[in-house]
Amino acid sequence: MAIALLAGLWLAYVGMLALCLGMERHFKQVWQRSPRPALRHGLRAGGWLALVLSLLASVAAWGWAMGPVGWFGLISLAGFGLVLLLPYRPRLAAGLPLFAMPLMLLAWAVGL
């Protein structure tokens, strides 16, 4: 259950980040260049896909009765963290999912 919760939070953050970077303003803020239209559309599609996968992870953790409610909490938490990080450390905000992935794999291997 805990690994599904961590996966849901990670996917919610990745989804919110991808949707954020799918906007030209925020992409320029992080990477100091304009994104190509195909990249913007890919980031938006990937963001929605990650949010749907986050919903499925939440349902796996809590069931269909509480999963969608917990999912709204996870995307709110992920969005709040992104809002706090993006103005001050935009590269850290973009790189955070890469640092969190090995920790999730370690938690899965340990059996949390």
UniProtKB/TrEMBL annotation:
UniProtKB keywords: Membrane, Transmembrane, Transmembrane helix
Domain of life: Bacteria
Regions that span the bilayer: 6-24, 45-63, 69-86, 93-111
Species in which this protein is naturally found: Metapseudomonas resinovorans NBRC 106553
Protein name as it appears in the record: Iron uptake protein
